[in-house]
Design brief:
With 151 residues, the protein is mainly α. Helix content is 77%, strand content 0%. The radius of gyration is 18 Å and the shape is globular.
Length: 151
């Protein structure tokens, strides 16, 4: 389903001559095709699932945020703005992302349910969060909140 949304969005953007959107969608589809080929090599002929595609999109967003920080440090504001525009386009294909307060609340709930008491429990906490909130949460922030709770 997500794959079709991406393809349809590319067709629409091509017709509307939206250059930034077209180039971003082509990058997404190229990365998706690469991952599909790798998945077929591992014996998964159907390619990536929607959850895996969402994870790919989140990775792309994270990469762009890292680039923005570097561009801003280097005084390349125009490139940082380009990356920000790409993030907005990519985010259109992800479910609504949880706010910081929601992430903190979810982390507290999981810690309480698991009875986690120390940093060594981080793996179990993060696994539970990924299972419940795949595609909805910034797991980097969730990890920080969990570490704060366990300290």
């Amino acid at each position: 389903m997500l794959r079709e949304r991406l393809s349809d969005a590319l067709k629409t953007s091509l017709k509307a001559k939206e250059q930034r959107r077209v180039s971003t969608l082509r990058l997404i589809l190229a990365a998706l095709k690469d991952r599909d080929i790798a998945a077929r090599g591992e014996g998964k002929p159907e390619g990536l699932t929607d959850e895996q595609i969402s994870a790919l999109l989140q990775t792309m967003i994270r990469q762009r945020r890292d680039s923005i920080a570097l561009y801003e440090q280097g005084g390349r504001v125009e490139l940082a703005e380009q990356e920000q525009q790409e993030i907005k386009i990519i985010e259109e294909f992800l479910p609504r992302q949880m706010a910081d307060e929601e992430i903190a609340s979810a982390v507290k709930t999981v810690i309480a349910e698991l009875g986690a008491k120390a940093i060594k429990d981080m793996g179990h906490i993060m696994a539970a969060l990924r299972e419940r909130y795949a595609g909805q949460m910034d797991f980097g922030k969730a990890s920080q909140f969990a570490k704060q709770q366990l300290s």
